[in-house]
């Protein structure tokens, strides 16, 4: 075992793990196939992480305090090959249920080895659904990496330039958020051909950004297309930005377009 | 034994290239194997080819490429002219020219090898016409029998009897070719594509994701998959569909998806180099094709422990999937039936886990070592 091929590359993997995941306490849980048919995690002491950019090394599976970036996981000096896609939508959602400043995820690289990605996080609302119909942009979501909130809230659209923010009613129920904003007031003052509005969930004077990050889909800007609506000549379409935040683009459509 | 594969362009990406490379790589463990690419447009192949396989090309399309003396002038003159040897109905006709005719004919007339395996109709016909008599000629058909248009079909009928064997991907194709070739000397044998024996990621059946993969073209039936999935999300709004691939229908499909208000549930993921890694994140693979010459992604899905819900379209799916055992076959072209099949697979979690386990066993039958053995048995019969 140990030599695999994927996508034109060759893996010189060492031991092969059955499972490689980060649990809620930021501990890397690696399970090995066991000749007896069970699984054992008894040999985690030989696991070393290596930062892909800086080369910094970290021994063991307790991950608190890891620097942001990609960490390659090896066992006795060889990268760990893994069967585990290292990916669970529900797992990412429940991991984000706790307030955190750092997010650590395990993933299987395209060459079949186990790696971790570490990034700094701030509380935001993970978007679970967007409605773009009937003159409203509506959002449902879940608080990620922050404390739950209870009570009325607002969905606020903040223009990147010029105009005043526009808000609409919403509510937090623990982790869940829902809110909507009417697009007509956003389009009313439109003078430039194109304007961009960032969306926030607002409660008690604090604004949480809206974004979709609790999955493995990169570059949502090009992969997700929301329905467009029109206010006169102005086309209004929600979109994901380069950082997967939810925003709305307003464009004055010229004749014939 | 020396084995030569002749392929249109080994430097691109696609099912035929992948299947050819995987087979060549496996055979190279025991034989002297080369892949001859009619065209070359980049320096290196996109897909992986084993280190023991030699790769060469006949017509270099890279910028600045020069044809060596004494063919320089001839190449210049003929490159601008249409091919006269390849039938205009060959799907890749536009790639060929009078110059590629010239080079290909010369190559076939002088090629000394034990077995020549050609990989598409146009090349199969060329081998039948020009390969040396001592060379065992094997034509592989990656397209299904009825996919050929009448004109090229006439050429197939005329020239295939010169070949030593036609290898089909499905038994349905085997029957059709056998009927066409009558009782002639050409053998017809079914050998499906194989999966290289590498470790694979495995689905934990934990993500509510349905995956579809393949070029975004009408034959893949994604328009119908979107309609079916719109029914699925009415009942199971927490399930997502991921479609991998790109193609000329892409924009149209995105518009359809928006129109069906599937933006929260369907993502067009673009192409991936690691389809197995993506499959392993999913729980169900959907096949909505109008026809599938074979259905390699079905076997890939199986090998990652992902059961398949597929239209019972011609020809591959029904020969690979045992409905109720490792997947579900639903009546072809029936959108409601596809939606029902997906919902059945979604809701029967226990059944899905069982089918996922069975799928792994089915995939083992397509292990490359098993498939290569079948090829070697065919060589032994034909060369002997």
Automatic annotation (TrEMBL), chain A:
The lineage of its organism: Bacteria, Bacillati, Actinomycetota, Actinomycetes, Streptosporangiales. This is Uncharacterized protein. It comes from the Bacteria.
From TrEMBL, chain B:
It holds the Pfam family Glycos_transf_1. PANTHER family: D-RHAMNOSYLTRANSFERASE WBPZ (PTHR12526:SF627), GLYCOSYLTRANSFERASE (PTHR12526). This is Glycosyl transferase family 1 domain-containing protein. The keyword DNA damage does not apply. It comes from Streptosporangium pseudovulgare. Residues 203-360 form the Glycosyl transferase family domain. Keywords: Transferase.
């Amino acid at each position: 075992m140990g030599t695999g091929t994927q996508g034109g590359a060759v893996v010189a993997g060492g031991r092969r793990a059955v499972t490689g995941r980060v649990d809620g306490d930021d501990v890397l849980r690696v399970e090995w196939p066991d000749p007896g048919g069970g699984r054992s995690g008894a040999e985690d002491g030989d696991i070393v992480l290596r930062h892909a950019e800086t080369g910094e090394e970290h021994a063991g599976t307790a991950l608190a305090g890891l620097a942001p970036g990609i960490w390659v996981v090896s066992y006795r000096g060889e990268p760990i090959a893994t069967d585990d896609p290292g990916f669970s939508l529900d797992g990412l959602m429940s991991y984000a249920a706790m307030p955190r400043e750092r997010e650590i995820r395990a993933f299987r690289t395209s060459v079949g080895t186990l790696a971790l990605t570490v990034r700094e996080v701030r509380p935001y609302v993970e978007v679970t659904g967007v409605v773009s119909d009937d003159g409203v942009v509506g959002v449902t979501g879940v608080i990620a990496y922050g404390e739950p909130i209870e009570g009325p809230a607002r969905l606020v659209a903040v223009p990147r330039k010029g105009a005043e923010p526009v808000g609409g009613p919403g509510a937090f129920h623990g982790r869940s958020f829902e809110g909507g904003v009417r697009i007509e007031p956003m389009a009313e003052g439109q003078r430039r051909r194109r304007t961009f509005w960032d969306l926030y969930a607002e409660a008690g004077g604090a604004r949480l950004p809206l974004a979709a990050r609790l999955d493995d889909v990169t570059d949502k800007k090009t992969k997700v297309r929301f329905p467009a609506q029109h206010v006169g000549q102005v086309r209004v379409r929600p979109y994901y930005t380069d950082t997967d935040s939810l925003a709305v683009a307003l464009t004055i459509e010229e004749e014939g377009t | 034994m020396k084995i030569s594969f002749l392929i249109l362009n080994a430097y691109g990406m696609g099912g035929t290239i992948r299947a050819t490379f995987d087979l060549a790589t496996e055979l190279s463990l025991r034989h002297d194997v080369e892949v001859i690419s009619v065209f070359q447009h980049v320096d290196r192949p996109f897909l992986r080819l084993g280190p023991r396989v030699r790769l060469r090309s006949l017509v270099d399309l890279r910028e600045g490429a020069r044809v060596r003396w004494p063919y320089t002038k001839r190449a210049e003159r003929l490159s601008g002219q249409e091919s006269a040897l390849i039938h205009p109905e060959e799907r890749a006709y536009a790639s060929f020219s009078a110059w590629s005719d010239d080079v290909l004919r010369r190559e076939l007339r002088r090629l000394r090898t034990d077995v020549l395996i050609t990989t598409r109709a146009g090349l199969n016909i060329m081998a039948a016409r020009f390969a040396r008599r001592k060379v065992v000629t094997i034509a592989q058909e990656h397209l299904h029998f009825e996919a050929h248009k009448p004109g090229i079909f006439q050429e197939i009928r005329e020239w295939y009897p010169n070949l030593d064997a036609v290898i089909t991907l499905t038994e349905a194709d085997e029957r059709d070719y056998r009927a066409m070739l009558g009782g002639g000397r050409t053998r017809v044998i079914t050998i499906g594509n194989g999966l290289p024996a590498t470790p694979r990621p495995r689905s934990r059946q934990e993500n509510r994701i349905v995956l579809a993969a393949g070029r975004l073209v009408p034959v893949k039936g994604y328009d119908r998959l979107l309609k079916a999935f719109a029914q699925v999300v009415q009942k199971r709004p927490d399930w997502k569909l991921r479609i991998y691939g790109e193609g000329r229908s892409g924009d149209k499909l995105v518009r359809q998806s928006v129109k069906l208000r599937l933006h929260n549930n369907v993502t067009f993921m673009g192409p991936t180099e690691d389809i197995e890694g993506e499959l392993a994140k999913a729980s169900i693979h959907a096949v909505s094709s109008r026809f599938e010459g074979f259905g390699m992604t079905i076997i890939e899905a199986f090998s990652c422990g992902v059961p398949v819900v597929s239209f019972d379209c011609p020809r591959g799916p029904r020969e690979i999937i045992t409905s109720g055992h490792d997947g579900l076959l639903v009546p072809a072209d029936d959108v409601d039936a596809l939606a029902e099949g997906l919902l059945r697979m979604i809701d029967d979690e226990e059944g899905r886990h069982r089918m996922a386990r069975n799928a792994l066993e089915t995939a083992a039958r397509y292990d490359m070592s098993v498939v290569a053995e079948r090829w070697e048995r065919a060589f032994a019969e034909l060369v002997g």
